[in-house]
């Protein structure tokens, strides 16, 4: 099963314990093994961090950070292992202002 997380930029750190519990529940009780997560804002960063930690405890899971824009030298990533990043080719034709909406689809 596949699960996606694309969140909002304004998210308090208080959500982290609940988010971790939800992710573990998805892995344990719903057999989710593949996750896609955005890369804009705190919510996405929290999901990425939790999945990175959980992947050592649950080696069967895989997560992918779905980019909305082609990376350039001005973009900073919390993830230094680029093997977890993907860029959907369908976004190449998206107007820049709509790239995140295209990515989320």
Gross geometry? globular
String of helices and strands: EHEHEEH
Helix/strand class? alpha/beta
Radius of gyration: 14 Å
**Termini Cα gap:** 17 Å
- Main pleated-sheet profile: 4 strands, parallel
How many domains? 1
Overall number of strands: 4
> Average pLDDT, to the nearest integer?
85
The total of helices stands at 3
Order of strands, widest sheet: 1-2-3-4
Protein traits:
four-stranded parallel β-sheet, 4 strands, globular, alpha/beta, 3 helices, 105 residues
Please characterize this protein's 3D structure.
The chain has 105 residues and is α/β, with parallel strands linked by helices. The chain has one domain. The chain has helices spanning 16-30, 42-57, 99-104, and strands spanning 2-5, 34-37, 62-66, 85-86. Helix 1 crosses helix 2 (42-57). The chain is globular and about 40 Å long.
Q: Summarize this, please?
A:
The protein is α/β, with parallel strands linked by helices and 105 residues long. The protein has helices at residues 16-30, 42-57, 99-104; strands spanning 2-5, 34-37, 62-66, 85-86. Helix 1 (16-30) packs across helix 2 (42-57).
Topology (elements, then pairings):
Blueprint: E1 2-5, H1 16-30, E2 34-37, H2 42-57, E3 62-66, E4 85-86, H3 99-104
Parallel strand pairs: 1-2, 2-3, 3-4
Helix pairs in contact: 1-2
